[in-house]
Amino acid sequence: MPISFNQSVIEEFRAGAGKVGGPFEGGDLLLLTTTGARSGAPHTTPLGYVRHGGLLLVVGSNLGAPAHPDWYHNLLAHPVVRVELGTEEFEAVAVPAEGARRDRLFAHVTRAAPGYADYQERTSRRLPVVALERSGHPDAGGAREIVTLADKLLEVHTWLRAQLKHVLAETDAHLAAVAAHRGPDAPPAPGLGMQIRQHCLAFCGALTFHHTSEDAHVFPALAEHHPRLRDALDRLREEHRTVARIKDGILALLRDAGAADPVRFRAELGRMVAELTAHLDHEEGWVLPVLASVPFPAGRGGAA
Q1: Range of 270's domain?
Q2: Is the N or C terminus of the chain more exposed, i.e. has fewer CB atoms within 10 Å?
């Protein structure tokens, strides 16, 4: 069965360290892998891109068709994407630009690649401009050497703390900007914006994966080999449930981020900071000493 045009480009890209021929020859091309909004399956799409500072910009042109491309709907549901750029591969958070920022970025894109202006003229929809921001997720690899499971756990915890702090700072900046625009006594306007939404969804997804993995794999193994930790592990599981309830409340607000109450959202983030920080501190105090003797990845020759 013949392969699709997109698949042939993907295979050529990977075989040629990012270089392809045909209509993309000599152009700036990346591979974007998104998670299906409904299927949850990975989907890889070759896309042209334009650099803007440290960002990579991609445009949901769909060749000027009346509907947004599937990959755009996917990243709205799952903001963490995989980017292949030449021989480099990394995770990123995909953030659609809004308002005046979108217009500035689209103007930048069309100066570098005028064809996108033609696509915009073909359709009445506003072509989305998406900034791909390197996520710094621990699974994407980092400079710090990881030799034990304790190292890996601490790396993930450090990332979670940093991402939550980042979302909190974005939310505070948003509230301050709204107050400055509307006056100190006016109630905040509804809405959170795509920057907050995408970063918070990425954080919530990573938190869910981390706690689910601990409940299913790490904690049962620890309870079996270290019975003295069972009471502590039961408490950590209960803390997981408390954090999950707060997270579910945050996700409910994000379902309609454009109409969400930013003050309520900020309050829920504050609850998350308090509960998650305490939980991570407890977990590190109880399990890091034990995990320091477990090589990572499994099968590695001895712990440092």
Answers
A1: 144-291
A2: N
**What band does 136 get if pLDDT is binned at 50, 70 and 90?**
confident
CB distance 109 to 50 below 8 Å: yes
pLDDT digits (tens, 9 = 90+) for 52-109: 998 999 999 999 999 999 999 999 999 999 999 999 999 999 999 999 999 999 999 9
Q: Is the peptide bond before 297 cis (omega within 30 degrees of 0)?
A: yes
Residues in the chain: 304
Domain count, the chain: 2
Beta pairing partners, 30: 47
Compute φ and ψ for 45, nearest 5 degrees. -135, 130
Residue type, 207: L
Q: What is the pTM of this model?
A: 0.90
Q: Which of 52, 194, 54 is nearest to 113 (CA)?
A: 52
What is the C-alpha separation between 242 and 238, in angstroms, rounded?
Answer: 6
CA distance 200 to 60: 22
Whether 302 is in a domain gets the answer: no
Dihedral of CA 208/211/213/216: which sign?
A: negative
Separation in Å, CA 267 to CA 148, 207, 253, 278:
36, 19, 12, 17
Structure tokens at 202: 């990425």
Q: How far apart are CA 19 and CA 86, in angstroms?
A: 7
Do residues 115 and 149 share a domain?
no
Q: Is residue 21 part of a domain?
A: yes
222: how many CB neighbours lie within 10 A of its CB? Answer: 21
Say what percent of the chain tops pLDDT 70.
92
Helix (H, G, I), strand (E, B) or coil at 58: strand
Q: Is residue 114 part of a domain?
A: yes
Looking at residue 304, what is its pLDDT? 35
